[in-house]
Every structure is written in C-alpha cells, then in structure tokens.
C-alpha cells in the first residue's frame, strides 16, 4: 500500500490563506449557458394554446407512424389517413407532450428511475 501524504495523516488543522497573488487563483470570468431547443420546444413556444399544441403534435405523431409503416412495407395498412384526428391520437399527443416536459424538467430523476428499472 502506498504511503499517504503527510497532509492527510497529520492531526493538525491548519488553514491556508489564498491571496489574489497566488498563481492558482483565477480572475473573474463569464459563463455562457447554451440551451439546445428541440422541435417540441419550438412548437411550445409557437403555439400558446394547449389544444392547438396537442393537435399539432398529434399530426406529427400520425406522420411519424405513417412514415414508419412505409419504411416497414406496411403501406396498405396505414391507418387514419383522413383529415380528422381521433381521440386516441389526441390522447397519445397529450401523453407525448407531458412525457417530454417531465423529461426536460426531471432528467436526472428519469435517468435514475430508468437505471434502477
């Protein structure tokens, strides 16, 4: 086992005074915080109405589902190609928005919960 430095093994409680002349002390700096906004952030900033936002997200989710069906070769099975959104699509959009906001607000908690299973 390696020997511990004297500072860690001594019982003395000395104080070390740091001055501005100390080369380890840095001057004042500026911190810039960058926020990378996602597509849903842009939509939330654009549409202030909850119902309008929910409908837009429902249309986007429908498009996503239809595109995935095309990629998988299920073109004949594409569901809900009409001009009216279904209740289930609006509910799915609402859940997607809430999950997104929860993940943005509580990302650390979500990571812990996912890790613990």
What does this structure look like?
By secondary structure, this protein is mainly α. It is 55% helix and 0% strand. It has a domain at 36-116. The chain is built from five helices and no strands. The longest helix is centred in the middle third of the chain and has 23 residues, at 50-72. The chain is elongated, with a radius of gyration of 27 Å. The mean pLDDT is 77.
Count all strands and give the number: 0
Mean pLDDT: 77
Query: Could you give the order of the helices and strands?
Result: HHHHH
Secondary-structure-derived class: mainly alpha
Could you give a short account of the major beta sheet? none
Low-confidence stretches: none
Helix content: 40-55%
**Number of helical elements:** 5
- What Rg is obtained from the alpha carbons, in whole angstroms? 27 Å
First-residue to last-residue Cα separation: 38 Å
Q: Percent of residues in beta strands?
A: under 5%
Based on Cα principal axes, name the global outline: elongated
Question: Topology of this structure?
Answer:
Elements: H1 6-9, H2 39-46, H3 50-72, H4 87-105, H5 107-116
Helix pairs in contact: 3-4
Quick recap of the structure?
This protein is mainly alpha-helical. It has a domain at 36-116. It is 55% helix and 0% strand.
């Amino acid at each position: 086992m390696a020997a511990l430095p004297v500072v860690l093994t001594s019982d003395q409680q000395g104080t070390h005074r740091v001055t501005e002349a100390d080369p380890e002390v840095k001057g004042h700096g500026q911190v810039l915080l960058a926020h990378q906004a996602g597509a849903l952030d842009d939509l939330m900033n654009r549409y202030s109405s909850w119902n309008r936002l929910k409908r837009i997200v429902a249309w986007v989710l429908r498009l996503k589902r239809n595109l995935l069906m095309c990629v998988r070769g299920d073109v004949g099975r594409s569901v809900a190609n009409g001009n009216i959104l279904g209740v289930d699509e609006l509910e799915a959009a609402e859940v997607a928005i809430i999950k997104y906001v929860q993940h943005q607000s509580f990302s650390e908690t979500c990571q812990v919960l996912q890790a613990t299973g």
